[in-house]
Design brief:
This protein has 246 residues and is mainly alpha-helical. The chain is built from 9 helices and 2 strands, in the order E-H-H-H-E-H-H-H-H-H-H. 74% of the residues lie in helices and 2% in strands. Helix 6 packs antiparallel against helix 7 and helix 7 packs antiparallel against helix 8. The protein is globular, with a radius of gyration of 30 Å.
Length: 246
């Protein structure tokens, strides 16, 4: 089991929010005191005197504070780079299927080997540099794709606006030049119908885009929640066992 003390956390200069939550979890302050500290973003200095050297399982903080605070707390403990490098690689492996550049996957392989003492610091640095270059290349490609998409959208919008302007101009000309009221009425009716059709198309497209956006956001939120739950569960396994768990 991996344990920690309040004094070790305090020595790391925790944020007010996290410090108040762990003090409450350890029974040092009331729920109201915790909430006041969280809402105010400030913990009274007197609370520092509540810290002690009693060890407790760091896994407890997963429930009271959450994943981010526990990961931060690890820096307050004696270094165990190998264990936490394995955890970092494990987290990255969960999205390895999205990695298209072999340099990124190789960096994970080397980092894992390094955690087992099977790769040197130099090999780890080289793999990290290669993965960084891969990320830079991907960012450049994404920027170029975005630029092309923006240019295409601008061109498409300009063409659509020009077509609409031409249609309105033609309708006005037809209405102005028509000698008979019937012709003018027909022209205006055509223009009105075209305007309604354009408005309907725009509304339909907007509704479709909104639906896709909502579905995408919901899927992304669900995926993020699932990923965090998996990371939290894996971290709890490690904290409870005190070593890497397959």
């Amino acid at each position: 089991m991996i344990t920690i003390t309040l004094n070790q956390i305090l020595a790391g200069d925790p944020c007010a929010d996290g410090w108040a939550k762990i003090l409450h979890a350890r029974g040092k302050i009331t729920e109201q005191q915790m909430q006041e500290a969280v809402d105010g973003g400030c913990v009274p200095k007197s609370y520092s005197k509540l810290a002690d050297d009693e060890s407790f399982s760091l896994a407890i903080a997963l429930e009271s504070n959450g994943l981010d605070d526990v990961l931060w707390s690890l820096r307050c403990l004696p270094d165990d780079h190998r264990l936490w490098r394995k955890y970092a690689v494990w987290c990255a492996r969960q999205v390895q299927h999205l990695m298209t550049d072999p340099r990124s996957i190789n960096a994970l392989d080397v980092a894992w080997a390094h955690s087992d003492g099977l790769a040197t610091d130099e090999e780890l640095d080289a793999a990290w540099a290669a993965a960084r270059d891969a990320a830079m290349d991907a960012a450049m490609d994404a920027a170029m794709d975005a630029a092309w998409a923006a240019a295409w959208a601008a061109t498409r919008d300009a063409a659509r606006d020009a077509a609409r302007a031409a249609a309105w101009a033609a309708a006005r000309a037809a209405a102005r030049d028509a000698a008979m009221d019937a012709a003018m009425d027909a022209a205006w009716a055509a223009t009105r119908d075209a305007a309604w059709a354009a408005a309907w198309d725009a509304a339909r497209d907007a509704a479709r885009d909104a639906a896709w956006a909502a579905a995408w956001d919901a899927a992304m939120d669900a995926a993020m929640d699932a990923a965090m739950d998996a990371q939290k569960a894996k971290l709890k396994q490690i904290l409870d066992a005190g070593h890497w768990v397959e």
